[in-house]
Automatic annotation (TrEMBL):
Keywords: DNA-binding, Transcription, Transcription regulation. Pfam families: FCD, GntR. PROSITE patterns: HTH_GNTR. SMART domains: FCD (SM00895), HTH_GNTR (SM00345). This is GntR family transcriptional regulator. Residues 5-72 form the HTH gntR-type domain. PANTHER family: TRANSCRIPTIONAL REGULATOR, GNTR FAMILY, TRANSCRIPTIONAL REGULATORY PROTEIN. It comes from the Bacteria.
Length: 221
C-alpha cells in the first residue's frame, strides 16, 4: 500500500505537475486563498509547498506580493545549457566506466526505439525515448549528487517547454548525436562519451536559438 505524502509534499507535487502541464502559466500569480480551497489544505502546508517550489526555481517569491510561476528567459537558457552539458557529460563518462554487458544491451534496446521513432518522425515518442536514454545514463553513472543537480536543472528546462526537435534537420542530428554517445560507451571510451554528450546538449541550445530567431523574423514587419 503506497504511503501518503505529507500535506505540503502532496501540494507541491500537484502544483509542480500543473506547472509542467502548462495549467499554471509562466508569470501567473498564485492566489493562496484560491489554492487552499482548491487543494483542500490550510495556509501553513500550502506555504511550505510554495517554499519547496521556490527553492526548485519553479516559482519566484516577491516580498509583499506573493508567488509567481517562474519565467525562463533566453539568458537563463544560455547560462543553463553549458552547465547541464558539463554535468551530463560527466554522467556519460561515469556511466561508460560502470556499464556492463546487460547495461549495454538495455541501452541498445532504447536506441533501437529511438531510431524507429526518428525514422517515422514521431516527435512526441522520440522525446520519451530520448528522456529514457538520458535517465539511463544518469542512473548508470550511480552518482547521487550528479543526479540531484541534473534533476534540478531539468525541472527548469521543463518549465520552458522547449521543442528543439522542431528545428529543421534537428531530429536526425539529435539521433546521430545519441548514437555517437552510445558508440563511445560501447567502446568503453569514457572521454569520448563525455565529449559526445556535451556536444549533444550544446547543439540542443543552438537548435532552440535557431527556432527563436525564426519565430522573431516571422513576427517582424
Amino acid at each position: 500500500m503506497p504511503v501518503a505524502l505529507p500535506l505540503h509534499d502532496e501540494a507541491a507535487r500537484r502544483l509542480r505537475e500543473e506547472i509542467f502541464a502548462g495549467q499554471l502559466v509562466p508569470g501567473s500569480f498564485l492566489d493562496e486563498a484560491v489554492l487552499c480551497e482548491r487543494l483542500a489544505i490550510s495556509r501553513t502546508p500550502l506555504r511550505e509547498a510554495l517554499k519547496v517550489l521556490v527553492a526548485e526555481g519553479l516559482l519566484r517569491h516577491e516580498p509583499r506580493r506573493g508567488c509567481f510561476v517562474a519565467q525562463v528567459t533566453e539568458r537563463d537558457l544560455d547560462e543553463i545549457f553549458p552547465v547541464i552539458a558539463l554535468l551530463e557529460g560527466r554522467a556519460a563518462f561515469e556511466a561508460t566506466r560502470n556499464a556492463g554487458a546487460a547495461d549495454v544491451a538495455a541501452l541498445q534496446a532504447l536506441h533501437d526505439r529511438l531510431q524507429e521513432h526518428a525514422a517515422a518522425s514521431r516527435i512526441p515518442e522520440y522525446y520519451e525515448a530520448n528522456h529514457s536514454i538520458h535517465e539511463a545514463f544518469i542512473t548508470l553513472a550511480d552518482n547521487r549528487w550528479l543526479a540531484q543537480v541534473i534533476g534540478d536543472l531539468r525541472k527548469i528546462l521543463r518549465l520552458a517547454r522547449l521543442q528543439q526537435l522542431h528545428a529543421p534537420g534537428r531530429l536526425q542530428q539529435s539521433l546521430a548525436e545519441h548514437l555517437a554517445v552510445f558508440a563511445a560507451l560501447r567502446a568503453g571510451d569514457s572521454l569520448a562519451a563525455e565529449q559526445a554528450m556535451r556536444t549533444h546538449l550544446l547543439h540542443q541550445r543552438e537548435a532552440l536559438r535557431d527556432i527563436a530567431r525564426h519565430h522573431q523574423s516571422r513576427l517582424s514587419p
